[in-house]
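// run 5 | inverse folding | seed 20
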């Protein structure tokens, strides 16, 4: 049985998705630690913020590692065999960010060998996940088909951003959710 209160969630990538994940984890009584390359301030629900260089030091403390980072040259394959070896044998990896950030073959070995306790994946290195991939039959894995971001008001929220950005553009204000091409997100 998994007991969320008093467990530690390490949220890797504390942008919009990561901050909301942290808020929800904190609501379940979890202690939330954040790792982010650009954010230094702790959003609501995050007890501590750290730079990416602290990730290896923080992994052994986490009961849940939630990856929400974008796919960039720096994040590609960041969760690999070496990092799984740093995690608690009872820890769970959750990837709701980008599939290319987790090496699935390394994850499969870590799960099979008991290096970590389980995983929840919504994104994969190759989508859809091939039908013959061993993660489909792993007993300690939950797989979803890239639907973690869907909700009852998603279309309304997207429309709200488009309308707000049109208003901002017309009045010469800075736009919301602008992609930084240099950072690739």
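// decoded
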């Amino acid at each position: 049985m998994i007991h969320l209160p008093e467990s530690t969630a390490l949220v890797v990538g504390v942008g919009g998705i990561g901050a909301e994940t942290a808020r929800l984890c904190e609501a379940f009584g979890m202690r939330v630690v954040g790792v982010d390359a650009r954010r230094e301030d702790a959003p609501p629900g995050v007890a501590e913020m750290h730079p990416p260089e602290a990730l290896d030091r923080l992994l052994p403390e986490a009961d849940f590692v939630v990856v929400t980072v974008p796919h960039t040259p720096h994040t590609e394959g960041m969760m690999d065999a070496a990092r799984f070896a740093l995690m608690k044998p009872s820890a769970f990896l959750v990837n709701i960010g980008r599939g290319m950030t987790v090496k699935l073959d390394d994850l499969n070995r870590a799960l099979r060998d008991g290096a970590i306790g389980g995983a929840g994946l919504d994104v994969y290195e190759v989508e859809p996940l091939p039908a013959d991939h061993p993660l489909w039959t792993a007993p300690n894995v939950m797989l979803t088909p890239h639907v973690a971001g869907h909700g009852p008001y998603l279309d309304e929220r997207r429309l709200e951003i488009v309308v707000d950005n049109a208003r901002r553009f017309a009045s010469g204000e800075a736009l919301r959710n602008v992609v930084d091409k240099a950072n690739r997100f």
